[in-house]
Each structure stands twice: as C-alpha cells, then as structure tokens.
Amino acid sequence: MSVDVRYAAFGGITAILLFGTLYSVTYDTYLDTSDPSLTHLPHHLHATHYFANKANILNSYFIKRRMGWTSAAFLTLWLTSPHHKSGQHTDWFFGPALLEGSQAASGGECTATLQSGAVFTVPYEFCLTRTAISQETHPFLFVGPSLWVPDDRFPVVTSFLLTMSVLFLVDQIRPSLYARKWSLPHACAVVFNIVLVAIWFFAISTTSVYFHTPFEKFTGYLLGAAGYIVTLLY
Fold it and tell me: φ and ψ at 34, to 5 degrees?
C-alpha cells in the first residue's frame, strides 16, 4: 500500500473535526457541555435533528460504550491473528490510567447533581473512587438531606477516546492489510474493526457538529493523538 493508513486516519479525523466544528459555530448547533447548568438538559435541536438527541442509537449503544466496543474489536483481531505479539497490542489497556491523568491535566471536573437539580463541583478524588456522599458522611460539602454519587464531568472525553480509538484500531489493522492471506475468523475480525472505525468516524462528525465547545473538542482531539503516541513508546 502506498499510503500509510495511520496518516490517512489522522488526516480524516482532523478534517472531520475541523469542518464539523466550523459548521457548529457558523450555525450554532453545538451544546456547551462545559456549563453544568446545560449538561443534563436536552440539546436545543433535539426535536428536529436526530443526532442532536442524546437518546439516538449511535450515542446510546456505541458512543457511551466506546471503550467496550474498541476493546472487543481489538481482542477479536488479536485472538485471530497468526502472530500474537502481545507487546504490540496490550498498550490499549493503559487507556483507563491514561484517561484519568488526562482528565486532571486538562481541567476535568467532578460534579454532583442534587435531587433539586442543582449541580456543583466537588474534589476530583470523589469521582475516581465513585464514593457515595450524604449529609452524614460529608456534611462539609453541601447542605441538605440529599444522597448522591459524584458525576465525572469531563467534556473532552468523547473526542479524546474516539480519536484514540480510531488511531489505535487502524494501527492494529495495518499489519493485516499487508498479509497475503487471512483465515476466515481473522477476515471477520478485520471487517469488524473496519466497520467500527467507520462508526467512530461518523461519531466524531456528529460530536463535532452537535456537542461540546470548540475548545473541548480540540483539546480532546489533541489529548487523543498524544495518548496514542504514548502507547507507541511502551
């Protein structure tokens, strides 16, 4: 192949995110998820634009489960590959730790939503430990009898993980594209990975048009690219 598919994937992500973001700014189609008062509200275009509705199939069954889908695609490719080079592939499982570090470094916040609908920021360690908080256990954090579990509000996480997922899967598929012959299970795994990459490209386009501010989207994009580069260093 004359073109490195990794460069093509990176160029595709960049173009989709750039044009989608420009469109969202020009036509005011994006939801500012950095504003806690708007995060839990329906998108202002949800009634007329299917993919602006958070309940759409893409968001409900794929984007919200992106780590699971990407991990499943990777495992099918690895398990059916004739060369189980574990050192080449296991870097994906550094993802959760890398994500937590990126959240803190990029200004991600841990927020809590009370039964009244009020949203406020709490120390980030409560999200990392998923600690349930009540007036009895943490009276210094709030006033009232509500019981809640902190919500990890990290608005750049979608573009971060989608960018990293595309680059990672394309890199894993690349050796198979040069192979002269595939077994049937491996061929199915390659097709599964290619279809999932296509879905992630589409998810990047809907995210860039309907969700997050330009700063959030490009911060996530840069962190995703940086995260993928980090996996190459191990």
Answer: -75, -10
Nearest Cα residue to 172 out of 232, 217, 131: 232
Cα separation, 91 vs 94, whole angstroms: 6
The model carries a pTM of 0.72
The predicted-structure confidence for 11-62, as pLDDT tens digits, reads as follows 999 999 999 999 999 999 998 876 666 667 788 898 899 999 988 999 899 9
Given a cut of 60, is residue 174 above it in pLDDT? yes
Long-range interactions of 49-52: CB distance < 8 A, separation 24+:
49/210, 51/206, 51/209, 51/210, 52/210
> Tokens 């609908």, residue?
117
Element (H, E) at 13: helix 5-26
Number of residues that this document lists for the chain: 234
Dihedral pair phi/psi, residue 119, rounded to 5°: -125, 130
